[in-house]
Fold this protein.
Amino acid sequence: MAMGAANLMTPAERRAHRLTQVRRLRRILPIAAIALLAICLLQVVVGGFSRSAPEAAQADVARMLSPRFSGRAPDGRRFAITGASGVRSAADLNQIDIAAPVLTLQDGERTQRMTARTGVYDEAAHTLRLVGEVEIDTGGRVQLSAREAVVDTRTGAISGQQGLRAQVGSRQVEAESFSTDEDGDRIILKGGVRGRLEAPR
């Protein structure tokens, strides 16, 4: 029907019809080109964000499952740090946050073991900061517990500013801050020191 109608048009009508179609196409084509360009740009931007987001997240942290760090001091003292999981920060690669850390210090036949809820290990400073329900088995007669403690993995020295409870046999001593020597036998208590001595039964 359309071909029949076109055949019935005069040459002048056909020219006018073609000019109308050309003018219509001149209006439609630029709009279609702009729309296609906008779609292409949107795809490039969205694709760039989707690729960069995982890369940025990966750059922020390096996650570890069952991390383990170990070493030996010049005097032969050995240490090992383990945990349930760990996160190394991209801001400071020496800092590792450890969940449920366990520190073992071995000095000859003497072994000290320390646990806590969380910990931060500084590889450059050779220190482990324990936080929350800190339990310290000095490998001797002294058993320590604290809210927070800092351990030098090279020397075995321990210090803290968040409360200490020391159990020595039937004697119990509490203090606000403390420090110990390498062997854990000599403990310096400061601030609010109080003790309890239970008589033998």
